[in-house]
Amino acid sequence: MESIVPPPLQSGLDFHFPSSGGRDATEKATPASFPSSPVASDTGDEVPLLRRLPSASRRRRAVSESQIAYLSLPPTRRRSFSRDVGHAAAETYLLTRLTLILLRYLGVGYRWITKFLALVFYAVLLMPGFLQVGYYYFFSSQVRRSIVYGDQPRNRLDLYLPTDSNGSKPVVAFVTGGAWIIGYKAWGSLLGRRLAERGIIVACIDYRNFPQGTISDMVKDASEGISFVCNNIASYGGNPDRIYLMGQSAGAHIASCALVHQAIKESGEGDGTSWSVSQLNAYFGLSGGYNMLNLVDHFHRRGLYRSIFLSIMEGEQSLRHFSPEIVVRNLSARFGVPPLPPMILYHGTGDYSIPSDASASFAEALTSIGVQAKVVLYDGKTHTDLFLQVRFAIC
């Protein structure tokens, strides 16, 4: 296991990867020509051609005209609009329902409330930057949002595409963090934008959060998202021979679980596979936790109470199964050296959410069974610094 303290940091995100061998229609409406003279009625009186309509009639005409305008849209745009509205309504209902369920789990506790308020305050301070990233996320033509990769409601991913479409591009499949509770694919917008500007396609994979799902659901969703990227990214201009897996915080844990469990399947246990570990060139873990047994008490002190965390992890008996560090220590005895790609773990020494020892211990476990791994420590950097500020150089 190789521990590296990098040179002084710069702001921004910069990844260097190893090299390897409906058409819009516009119609111009021409107003009808009306005679300027009045029209005679049967009674002989002259009646104005255009009479003032009562207010109710005008309202009915306005409604009718809006309906006609909607129906005049191309069918693809009507379907897209209806789909977006329906999806937004379903997401709002689902989020409200799950929030109420989550509050029943959390109860009233000063730890999680203070941490939540601190997160809100932190988000307010970053709001100017969030607005810029949000505008890019919703309005940039380089972002393909909510591509379906599975059957579950959260089985969606966002693609960030480079402006230069010449040649096939390297690809990063990214699993976002969020304490297993508030993870969302849009959290990867900043990473996606920065890497897309450097000619790299980024796929931000969404997954079910607790209480909509537990850890096995999250790992399953991440694995299906990785499978979609591996098997379909070529149609979006990606190079299937240059795919990298990345996760941050809880996403690093979920992605590493998916990776290790996939290696076990390929070694002869479990069901058939839809993707292969050999399709990934490397794994990058940012501020991740990989031994859940060692982190239960730490999370409890930080406000993620033991009862909730064990519910997320499907009980204390499942902690070992969903601790990649513990799983890999047993792999070589059962299967020899597992087919894992090189794994590079990044962590800040000032991280209080997940101690940097978590990455160092996982890297040591990986190297002990013959997997190429190293940990890169950033002095004084916190849990979110690596994601928001640090310039990475990955070679």
From TrEMBL:
It comes from the Eukaryota. GO terms for cellular component: endoplasmic reticulum membrane; Golgi membrane. One of its GO terms (molecular function) is hydrolase activity. Residues 157-366 form the BD-FAE-like domain. It is a multi-pass membrane protein. It catalyses: [protein]-C-terminal S-[(2E,6E)-farnesyl]-L-cysteine methyl ester + H2O = [protein]-C-terminal S-[(2E,6E)-farnesyl]-L-cysteine + methanol + H(+). Keywords: Endoplasmic reticulum, Golgi apparatus, Hydrolase, Membrane, Transmembrane, Transmembrane helix. Gene3D superfamilies: alpha/beta hydrolase. It is found in: Endoplasmic reticulum membrane; Golgi apparatus membrane. The chain crosses the membrane at residues 112-138. Its EC number is 3.1.1.n2. PANTHER family: AB HYDROLASE SUPERFAMILY PROTEIN C4A8.06C, KYNURENINE FORMAMIDASE. Belongs to the AB hydrolase superfamily. Isoprenylcysteine methylesterase family. This is protein-S-isoprenylcysteine alpha-carbonyl methylesterase. It comes from Dendrobium catenatum. The lineage of its organism: Eukaryota, Viridiplantae, Streptophyta, Embryophyta, Tracheophyta.
